[in-house]
Write a structure and sequence with these properties.
single chain, 223 residues, mainly alpha, minor pseudopilin epsh fold, 3-stranded antiparallel β-sheet, 9 helices, 51% helix, binds manganese (III) ion
């Protein structure tokens, strides 16, 4: 009886582990329509259940086919991304960037950051308005698809950057590296249904739904 139980346990566990996918699509921390009227329900639904989901699926497929990727965390993959294929770069980036992006949005947004982060933004950029302008310019001028970032450099300084495609500031291949604490997706799939060609209007809407509590938390953790 005991032997049979052990055998069964091993069989169940091994089938579980052989099917288990290393990366999974995280749930959104709010409903698909919660960010209306700034980010619309249809865009949020497609963005999460189709775009983000396919980065996760493609990343899992790439991991299954690459021995060197087995057991690696997303951060470990990104910081040595130069060792892997373009498929890993695009999909590991896509998964990390979107997982972060969702947590930086909220229907209950404060209009301004508070405390040490606000002080540091003012010190670095002159004023919150100046920071906003510089971040928005970075998002507007990213040609084609990509992301705008607020990062903390290894010297502990705030810096605004942007990257192409699904690259991000953790990747070994990007010029301006750091820990991202704020991110904006400027791929057309993020705004086209509601804003069409008007990327600046989408960027204006973004300021209304930033989760500054989360940005502040990431700032404190990275310092
Ligand atoms: Mn996207």
């Amino acid at each position: 009886m005991k032997k049979k139980f052990t055998f069964l346990t091993i069989a169940v566990l091994s089938s579980f582990f052989s099917c288990a996918q290393p990366f999974t699509l995280p749930s959104l921390p709010y409903a698909y329509d919660a960010l209306e009227p700034y980010f619309d329900e249809q865009t949020m639904t497609i963005h999460h259940t189709k775009h983000h989901a396919s980065y996760v699926n493609n990343l899992n497929t790439a991991v299954a086919a690459t021995i060197a990727l087995k057991g690696k965390t997303i951060e470990e993959i990104l910081t040595s991304i130069d060792k892997y294929s373009p498929a890993v770069r695009n999909n590991a980036g896509g998964h990390y960037n979107h997982s972060l992006f969702w947590t930086l949005l909220t229907p209950k947004a404060d209009s301004l950051p508070k405390g040490p982060l606000m002080n540091e933004i003012t010190k670095t950029f002159g004023s919150f308005e100046a920071f906003k302008t510089q971040f928005a310019d970075s998002a507007k001028t990213r040609f084609g698809s990509g992301w705008a970032w607020l990062i903390i450099t290894k010297e502990g300084k705030l810096k605004i950057t942007s990257t192409a495609n699904q690259d991000n500031p953790l990747m070994s291949v990007v010029k301006e590296k750091g820990t991202p604490i704020l991110a904006l997706d400027v791929w057309e799939h993020a705004y086209y249904l509601k804003y069409q060609n008007k990327r600046p209007d989408y960027i204006t809407a973004f300021w209304k739904i930033i989760n500054w509590t989360e940005v502040q938390k990431r700032y404190q953790a990275a310092k």
